[in-house]
Design goal:
The chain contains 3 helices and 4 strands, in the order ααββββα. A 4-stranded antiparallel sheet has the order 1-2-3-4.
């Protein structure tokens, strides 16, 4: 009788690890950081533009209310006479009627809260004098932007 030797056990294969290694994870996070640093300024600019439309709606509404008031009175009215709130509908701008007379008025919208970061268009001014309508904007209360920047602030 021959004795047979048992075969040695087959070597165990090591189970392959799944998931990400630390360098792969670090590279992925670096890519996400770079992409977000590029995208955030564009997002902020778009958000400021959308919030600016809040002021434009408020100013156009005030202009409509002024014309209705003037049709029945000898002069343009103040905010209380018009029944218009001193803030824009979403509260991103504060409205101030600077001058009202029998021939025209001037109203200013000043950014409040986070919208103050929209520096170039922080102040918007609508002036009606006779048949002339003037749109102005600016970083300061002087609303002295160039014509091109003015058109951008007013969405034209």
């Amino acid at each position: 009788m021959t004795l047979s030797r048992p075969h040695p056990p087959a070597p165990r294969r090591r189970a392959r690890a799944t998931g990400f290694s630390l360098p792969e994870l670090a590279l992925g996070l670096a890519i996400v950081g770079i992409l977000s640093s590029i995208a955030y300024p564009a997002f902020s600019s778009t958000l400021a533009s959308v919030r600016r439309s809040d002021a434009l709606v408020a100013l156009m509404n005030l202009q409509t209310q002024q014309e209705r008031y003037r049709a029945n009175h000898e002069a343009y009215g103040d905010l209380a006479q018009l029944g218009v709130a001193g803030v824009s509908p979403s509260g991103h701008y504060e409205l101030t009627l600077e001058a009202a007379s029998s021939t025209g008025y001037s109203v200013r919208a000043a950014a409040t809260g986070a919208q103050r970061n929209d520096s170039a268009c922080r102040y918007l001014r609508l002036t009606v004098e006779g048949l002339n309508l003037t749109y102005a904007s600016g970083e300061t209360d002087a609303t002295a932007n160039t014509a091109a920047l003015n058109r951008r602030c007013w969405g034209q």
